[in-house]
Write a structure and sequence with these properties.
Radius of gyration: 20 Å
Strand content: under 5%
CATH topology: Growth Hormone, Chain: A
Distance between the termini: 32 Å
CATH architecture: Up-down Bundle
Oligomer: single chain
CATH superfamily: MFS general substrate transporter like domains
Helix content: over 70%
Mean pLDDT: 84
Shape: globular
Length: about 400
């Protein structure tokens, strides 16, 4: 834990972690909030799944594209533009009654305008700490990220069930506006300039660690979002049980991230961590009893944050600094698509088979997420004894005054 304490004492690190966490918090809230909101209006989880699928298409297009734009126009301009468009589109879904096709169109706009905060902050990190501190910083970031992906739905579930689905969307919007402004105004965002990449869009995916991280992140978030929808379905909209179970899921992930985050990253690291996720979710299929699900999801959660830390480290060490934003854009796109499609598929299976069907979806995602890095172990860099700094560009990197 001492390494984390030293990191937080580094000037600007604690502030930038808090700002980016707040700005990205809606990423863990909106998929579930949209699912509950559209299902409440239409009476169908399937229709809500179609809206989430449209959102995921927009995110798939926007992730690497807007991240790459930051190297052309600068971080602040791209982040501000996407934030404004996103706020307008999300507000429309919350307050304007529409048909399902219109909800899908607006959902597409929400996806297209997702601010590329994750790509920005992970590009900034190597300029704030030494190479040896970078892997622990990614681990700390991954542990904090679990508040987004797991604790976020707890807030969404509580607000949606106790107040309204519109209120749940608006809470996410408050985080988006407040956190987005905080991050955009952070000195580091104005100080670090991403060099313009000389490679074609998408070329960075030919780097095997980037592709492996993108695909594994897709599967991991698909599993997590399917769990969220399944837990809500299992315990209904009226009680606190779903929020408590998801909170336990979050505690497992936070504990795993902080305890395993400083271990050396070897070729089997991602597969081992995904195996813990799979075992927990496979156990969840066996029973919908409260305590059984709580224990099963605690086990699954232990592997989640460590997987994110490994993904960040192997991407960073595999690409040039000018390509890091786009690389993390693809990884983020994989995660966001996984979150949306996991909720969508779980919605259809819940309609057909009840909450157990949704847990089958989550376990299926996790199983493939374990098998992929196992089969593709040769794609996984061995970082034992190495730092996680990006490959330097051959030209000087400009530093702009904030």
């Amino acid at each position: 834990m001492s390494a984390y304490g030293q990191l937080l004492k580094t000037p600007g690190v604690a502030r930038i972690i808090a700002a980016q966490l707040t700005a990205r918090f809606p990423n863990g809230m909106l998929s579930l909030a949209f699912l509950l909101h559209i299902e409440h209006i239409t009476g169908s989880y399937g229709s809500a799944g179609l809206v989430l699928a449209a959102t995921s298409v927009g995110q798939a297009v926007a992730g690497p594209l807007t991240s790459r734009w930051m190297g052309v126009w600068g971080m602040r301009k791209v982040l501000t533009l996407t934030l404004v468009v996103s706020v307008v589109a999300i507000s429309a879904i919350a307050f304007i009654p529409m048909t399902v096709p219109l909800y899908m169109i607006v959902g597409l706009i929400v996806g297209l305008s997702t601010p590329p905060v994750q790509s920005a902050v992970r590009t900034i990190y190597p300029k704030m700490v030494t190479g040896k501190q970078l892997t622990p910083l990614f681990s700390l970031d991954a542990s904090a990220q679990e508040i987004i992906w797991v604790a976020g739905p707890v807030i969404t579930t509580f607000v949606a069930t106790q107040i309204s689905t519109v209120a749940a969307i608006m809470v996410a919007l408050v985080f988006l506006i407040g956190g987005g402004a905080w991050f955009i105004l952070s000195p580091e965002v104005g100080r670090v300039r991403i060099p313009r990449s000389r490679r074609k869009l998408g070329k960075v995916l030919t780097k095997k660690p980037v592709l492996l991280s993108t695909l594994t992140g897709f599967l991991l978030l698909g599993a997590c979002s399917a769990v969220e929808a399944s837990v809500v379905s299992a315990f209904g909209h009226g009680g606190p049980e779903s929020g408590i179970v998801l909170a336990i899921f979050a505690l497992g992930s936070l504990a795993g991230g902080l305890s395993l985050g400083q271990l050396p990253v070897g070729p089997w690291s991602m597969a081992r961590r995904m195996f813990a996720v799979f075992i927990g979710l496979a156990l969840a299929v066996a029973s919908l009893q409260f305590w059984w699900l709580a224990v099963a999801l605690l086990i699954a959660g232990i592997g989640i944050a460590p997987v994110f830390a490994v993904m960040s480290s192997i991407v960073s060490v595999s690409v040039k600094f000018s390509d890091t934003a786009e690389a993390y854009g693809w990884v983020g796109t994989g995660q966001l698509i996984g979150a949306a499609l996991g909720s969508a598929l779980a919605g259809f299976f819940i309609d057909a088979n009840g909450a157990t069907g949704g847990f089958w979806v989550s376990a299926g995602f996790a199983l493939v997420g374990f098998l992929l890095p196992t089969v593709l172990k040769s794609w996984h860099p061995d970082l034992r004894g190495r730092d996680s700094s990006p490959i330097p560009d051959t030209e000087p990197i400009a530093i702009q005054p904030s």
